[in-house]
């Protein structure tokens, strides 16, 4: 039987032999010996060497771990609720590779389905919050609130010293995440019970709970007005299901609204991944963090979707950015948006009313039984006062299979949800020791705050009521997109490789998917064991002492690592160590993360061959010797080269008192061959959505664990509700849940268990081989910009297109869009060098697909030469008009033939047809529209 390793790695043994020969070596081992510097190669066997099993065994182990969890019926609340995912959405979005293997929609012409789904999400959030512009998702509620805090600071000019007032009625994890961010950025927080009014006369902003964590609904209008009178902006943290029935934050004057869309059809997943949201009033659009989908037009004047206002983002603004958001939660935002499409306004109102009705029934029964409640107005959560009996009530409910929330010795919280039944209501009342039949339900929603305006009036939310309509809508959108299920996505720095079905399957196991993040530790022992094993494996593979998987994106892993460095220096009294050195070629998140960690960025130059300039490094270290906190360096370099100077770089920084942060974005070129923790790194973040097979999901989810040396272990993220009491005090949380996006951790667990150490090492070797094979095949047509020893690259290569641009007037965009006609997603454009393409083929693509891509690139080079030689019109040629749509065939207007335009060499009858022509990016920014356009827009076009 073929092993999993053989199926994960694309090239067959005979293909590998031929590829190695083409690159100029006798064996794959010889290639790796030449590529990886001897000074960094690992010499130690890893504990991971003891694993490596077949799919049946690994899936059996994961099922056994899942069954050791006890999800029960979660009525804990705190922002996480059971939900009923419509099977058509679960099967055709969350479990469909055409959605989960897609990349971030930076190439909008081949991402129209995803972009429409995200526009639906933005429209949903805009309608519920009553604010005109929502982004296309954030990481969770806690980080969304923290992003709102920094938005307030940058939007209110000249108010840097004014405090931000945080409502103590927020969920505890939200308060904690905001505090972690604020402390690092030097933002003063004032914590206050805002149900008693605003306690200060001057502030930059307020963060208001609506409803509160204890369930109480308090009218926020007075605090919003007071905030504006104090020259601040008002942020409202809200529950989207509650907003179906309650007045929107926008209608009450709020400037910003944030929250989590988890309960719109996304499983709790033991804390994530879930789509956070943020919406803002007019005038704040350009301050929005994350991604924003907008409507523009294509070359034919037809409406088309694309990412708008990208100059706001960290990859553009770098150290001037006030957000480092990179990974969003696209897949989960799509699921939440489709939940709203599936149910429509009427369905959501019925769900919200039923949820509230169950809470009211419980409240009525408790009052009839003599139990006091802490609030008269609530939506789905009540808090009962049971002096000295809280533990007994919670234990009785748990014995009946229900998890309640113990607030303290005297108070118990109960939250209802879409999944609550009459049987659950009876069990809860019985646990409190009251007559389950007593009391009469009624409405506890305050009349003055009832919603009166319409929501979800766009036809997309009314036209898909039957299963047939919904299925076809999802299929129509996925067919518009290009994902790994269609072909190669050769993106440098992003590692778009196989996400095997066996790895994906366990995330749907009920013991993983239906677990609330704050159940008692003894009810999550299977998940905790999985996490402990995974953290140990990752530490082992990277050479570090300890790993935390809490950061729920690579950008958050960067922040966690830098905060660990900051905490370490401060623990030693080195409070002045605030300088972070960053090479000029670094990822944009590096600089943004450094600023968010309270550091100042100093750029280190690169040499002409793309390596870190060690002379400039020494000079900068000498200049800032007393202030040096860290250097952030990507290895292999952002230019795709194994630099020999990495160990010397580490030595120089350490000699000047700094710490070395090795960005793990390119770890797919190291696993099994070199370990950052051995060759000088003090801390790294790892992109599990790159090297370890969590799929990109169209731009999220991701996980960015942080790995540290022993001296930094005390400064890893903590969480006030962590199941391990020893990890509740310290740095504070980076994300809202103790284990971040735990729900997708079975994927890398399965990948490592299936591959074993030998398989992981082989995967790295073949990834490096594939990159060098592509570089060798294309080097005469497109110069490879950087290479290391023996003319070799690491796992990616950069093709220099600038000479061709000069000769033919064609841009990197023209070549990227022309690749669509050949059936490929474009490589990474103009990063890290403008006018280049960065290609990373990964180990998953077989030789036939690699050759198909190379053949396409060579054919495009021939087309470029025709333009340069004057053989075809410089203004009307297949490149400048790419990509070509099927609609153009109805009225072909080009000087070249249909075959040359839409059926270039190598394409087949089942070629991918882009749904829109090239999109006018500038038009969409000049005419910003970020909600679903009326159907008339399409009819007119």
From TrEMBL:
Catalytic activity: N(6)-[(R)-lipoyl]-L-lysyl-[glycine-cleavage complex H protein] + glycine + H(+) = N(6)-[(R)-S(8)-aminomethyldihydrolipoyl]-L-lysyl-[glycine-cleavage complex H protein] + CO2
The entry's keywords: Oxidoreductase, Pyridoxal phosphate
Lineage of source species: Bacteria, Bacillati, Actinomycetota, Actinomycetes, Propionibacteriales
Domain of life: Bacteria
SUPFAM superfamilies for this protein: PLP-dependent transferases (SSF53383)
EC identifiers of the protein: 1.4.4.2
Residues the record lists as N6-(pyridoxal phosphate)lysine modifications: 690
Quaternary structure and partners: The glycine cleavage system is composed of four proteins: P, T, L and H.
Ranges where the Glycine dehydrogenase C-terminal domain occurs: 763-884
Role this protein plays: The glycine cleavage system catalyzes the degradation of glycine. The P protein binds the alpha-amino group of glycine through its pyridoxal phosphate cofactor; CO(2) is released and the remaining methylamine moiety is then transferred to the lipoamide cofactor of the H protein.
Organism, as annotated: Aeromicrobium alkaliterrae
Protein name as it appears in the record: Glycine dehydrogenase (decarboxylating)
Cofactor(s) the protein needs: pyridoxal 5'-phosphate
């Amino acid at each position: 039987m073929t092993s999993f390793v053989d199926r994960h790695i694309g090239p067959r043994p005979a293909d590998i032999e031929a590829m190695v020969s083409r690159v100029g070596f006798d064996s794959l081992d010889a290639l790796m010996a030449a590529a990886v510097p001897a000074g960094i190669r690992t010499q130690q066997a890893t504990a991971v060497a003891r694993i490596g099993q077949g799919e049946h065994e690994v899936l059996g182990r994961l099922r056994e771990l899942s069954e050791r969890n006890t999800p029960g019926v979660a009525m804990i609340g705190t922002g996480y609720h059971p939900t009923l995912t419509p099977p058509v959405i679960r099967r055709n979005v969350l479990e469909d590779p055409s959605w989960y293997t897609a990349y971030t929609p930076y190439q909008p012409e081949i991402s129209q389905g995803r972009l429409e789904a995200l526009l639906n999400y933005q429209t949903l959030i805009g309608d519920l919050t009553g604010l005109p512009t929502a982004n296309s998702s954030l990481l969770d509620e806690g980080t969304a609130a923290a992003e709102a805090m920094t938005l307030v600071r940058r939007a209110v000019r000249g108010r840097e010293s004014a405090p931000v007032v945080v409502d103590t009625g927020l969920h505890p994890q939200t308060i904690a995440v905001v505090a972690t961010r604020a402390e690092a950025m030097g933002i003063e927080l004032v914590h206050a019970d805002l149900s008693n009014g605003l306690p200060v006369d001057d502030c930059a902003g307020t963060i208001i709970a609506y409803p509160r964590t204890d369930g109480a609904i308090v009218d926020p209008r007075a605090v919003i007005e007071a905030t504006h009178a104090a020259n601040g902006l008002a942020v409202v943290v809200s529950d989207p299901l509650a907003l179906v029935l309650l007045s929107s934050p926008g209608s009450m004057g709020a400037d910003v609204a944030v929250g989590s869309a988890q309960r719109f059809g996304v499983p709790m997943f033991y804390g994530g991944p879930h789509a956070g949201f943020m919406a803002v009033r007019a005038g704040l659009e350009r301050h929005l963090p994350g991604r924003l989908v907008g409507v523009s037009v294509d070359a034919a004047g037809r409406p088309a979707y694309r990412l708008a206002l990208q100059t706001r983002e960290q990859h553009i603004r770098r150290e001037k950015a006030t957000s480092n958001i990179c990974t969003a939660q696209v897949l989960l935002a799509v699921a939440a948006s489709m939940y709203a499409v599936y149910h429509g306004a009427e369905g959501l109102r019925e769900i919200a009313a039923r949820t509230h009705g169950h809470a009211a029934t419980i409240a009525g029964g408790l009052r009839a039984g003599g139990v006091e409640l802490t609030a008269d107005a609530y939506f789905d959560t009540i808090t009962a006062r049971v002096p000295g009996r809280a533990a007994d009530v919670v234990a009785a409910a748990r014995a009946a299979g229900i998890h309640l929330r113990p607030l303290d010795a005297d108070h118990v919280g109960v939250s209802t949800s879409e999944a609550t039944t009459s049987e659950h209501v009876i069990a809860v009342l019985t646990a409190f020791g009251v007559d389950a039949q007593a009391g009469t339900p009624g409405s506890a929603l305050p009349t003055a705050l009832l919603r009166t305006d319409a929501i979800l009036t766009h036809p997309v939310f009314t036209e898909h009521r039957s299963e047939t309509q919904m299925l076809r809508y999802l299929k129509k959108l996925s067919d518009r997109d290009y994902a790994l299920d269609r072909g190669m996505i050769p993106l440098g720095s992003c590692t778009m490789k196989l996400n095997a079905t066996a790895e994906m399957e366990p995330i749907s196991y009920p013991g993983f998917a239906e677990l609330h993040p704050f159940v008692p530790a003894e009810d999550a022992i299977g998940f905790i064991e999985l996490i402990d094993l995974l953290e140990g494996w990752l530490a082992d593979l990277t050479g570090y002492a300890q790993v935390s998987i809490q950061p729920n994106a690579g950008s958050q892993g960067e922040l966690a690592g830098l905060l660990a460095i900051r905490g370490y220096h401060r623990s030693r009294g080195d409070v002045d160590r605030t300088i972070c050195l960053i090479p000029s070629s670094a990822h944009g998140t590096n600089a943004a993360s450094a600023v968010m960690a309270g550091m100042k960025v100093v750029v280190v130059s690169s040499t002409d061959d793309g390596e870190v300039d060690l002379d400039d490094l020494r000079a900068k270290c000498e200049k800032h010797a007393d202030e040096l906190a860290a250097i952030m360096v990507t290895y292999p370099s952002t230019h795709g080269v194994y630099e020999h100077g990495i160990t010397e770089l580490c030595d120089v920084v350490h000699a000047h008192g700094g710490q070395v942060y090795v960005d793990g974005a390119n770890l797919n070129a190291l696993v099994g061959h070199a370990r950052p923790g051995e060759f000088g790194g003090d801390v790294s973040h790892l992109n599990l959505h790159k090297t370890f097979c969590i799929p990109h999901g169209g731009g999220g989810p991701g996980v960015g664990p942080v790995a540290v040396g022993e001296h930094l272990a005390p400064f890893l993220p903590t969480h006030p509700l962590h199941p391990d009491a020893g990890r509740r005090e310290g740095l504070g949380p980076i994300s809202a849940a103790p284990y971040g996006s735990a729900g997708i951790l079975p994927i890398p667990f399965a990948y490592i268990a299936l591959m074993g150490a030998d398989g992981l090492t082989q995967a790295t070797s073949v990834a490096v081989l594939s990159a060098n094979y592509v570089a060798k095949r294309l080097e005469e047509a497109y110069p490879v910009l950087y290479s290391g020893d023996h003319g070799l690259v690491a796992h990616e290569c950069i093709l220099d297109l600038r000479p061709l641009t000069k000769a033919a007037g064609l841009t990197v965009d023209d070549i990227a869009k022309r690749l669509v006609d050949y059936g490929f997603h474009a490589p990474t454009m103009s990063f890290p060098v403008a006018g280049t393409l960065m290609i990373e083929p990964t180990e998953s693509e077989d030789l036939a697909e690699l050759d198909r891509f190379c053949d396409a690139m060579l054919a495009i080079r021939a087309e470029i030469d025709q333009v340069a030689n004057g053989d075809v019109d410089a203004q009307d040629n297949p490149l400048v008009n790419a990509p070509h749509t099927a609609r153009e065939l109805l009225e072909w207007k080009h000087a070249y033939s249909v075959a040359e335009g839409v059926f270039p060499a190598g394409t087949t009858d089942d070629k991918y047809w882009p749904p829109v022509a090239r999109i006018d990016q500038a038009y969409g920014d000049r005419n910003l529209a970020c909600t679903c356009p009326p159907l008339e827009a399409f009819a007119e076009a």
